[in-house]
Amino acid sequence: MSNRTVHRRTVLGGAAAVAAGWALTGCGGNGDGDGDGNAPRERKKGQRIQLTFWSWVPGIDKPVDLWNRRNPEVQVKVEKVSAVNGQQYAKMHAAIKAGNPPDLGQIEFPVVPGFLLDNGLLDLAPLGAARHKNKFSGWQWQQSVFGKGIYAIPQASGPMGLFLRQDLFDRWEVQTPRTWDEYEAAAKAVRKKGAWIETFAPTNGNRFAGLAWQAGAKWYGTHGDTWTVHLDDEPTRKVADYWESLVRQKLVKTIPDRQNAWYKDLQTGAIPAWVGASWGDALLAGNAPGTKGKWRAAPLPQWKAGEQAFANWGGSTTAVFAKARYPEDALDFAVWLNTDPESMALLIDGGYGFPSAKKGYATTDLDVDKAFFGGQAYSKVFAAAGAHVDTSWRWGPGVDTLYQRLGDAFTDALADGGSFRSVLTKVQAQTVADLKDKGLKVESGG
Questions:
Q1: How are strands ordered across the β-sheet holding 220-223?
Q2: Helix ranges restricted to H, 25-148
Q3: Residue 418 DSSP SS3
Q4: Per-residue pLDDT tens over the stretch 339-369
Q5: In 54, 191, 199, 354, which residue has its Cα 20 to 30 A from 270's Cα atom?
């Protein structure tokens, strides 16, 4: 078994090992290469090489240009990929199957296990990646650790909060909601003014997962050598019931977020709030420039007053693909990109999220769009949220497909009046079937 290739066994039988808190058994190797002409190589002194890097991170070209100026022998070529509806991952999986993936790729925490099923990622542990562990937030580092294997370098997280138009809330005498009950009351007050507090975006499974996470859900787990899937657990039902109630009361829109109609509503005030993530500052500032100075950030509403329950939306890594020909250089770049202070400063300017690195920046550095938020030091809100994220949440294989299933099922429920709980029941069954089709041992959680 090749030392450089992540085999399906990593996920297929891996639930048996629970090292590092939650893990998958890795596979040992004999270092014999894969025999296809793409065996890993060690760059010779003075040799010039080029690495390819697929990413959708805004402004990623600037830190890459900095690396290229500093490292003339190891040049990195960026190819931008679309992050709309998972297009980047479809392209990556297709490239893996065709045998021509890039050297590195931007991969979110939730989909790392899915790439392991494709034998797509390189185990960085034999390259000594563990020596970099203490440079990163512990729970984010663990998102890409399975058994003894390390399959990506964390880049950024997305602690969740509430963005709102403070000018409109003040004019309408609506208080910033601290709980979800208060959020519903605010939605009713906003609706009386002819607006909708925001939208329930049916195709945004990533945000829905974050809301379930905050409520205490545990969608994936392991039991012996078996995966457990529990999408329809009680916390997720609570979240589904809540948003279904807002929809049925016509207190929220149901248009997709982060698309043209939604951006227009943000600019006109038709939607004066958004439950989003830390990286939403750049998104709002870039797409609703006419509202500069009017927005504020607030903590995510709580299910019970006084609680400190938060979650993460998204979160990215820089991964090295299994067929990378110069893996040591690829690893060096991935670590540098996400820990070098100048690199992080450029990434922060681009609005890439909350850094996974422990050092090299100050929270105030993240207030890139401070003027847009009326001078608020808004990143403190997300720093506090990040400190209280439930770190026991773990992802499993097939999340990209799960999101597609959720989007289809929520869209159907909105069209035919079906219950949101029926969405959970349906997607739960589909997800179990999907994983069984991949050869996994899986059962529904209880």
A1: 220-223, 226-229, 442-444
A2: 61-70, 87-98, 112-117, 138-142
A3: coil
A4: 999 999 999 988 788 899 999 999 999 999 9
A5: 354
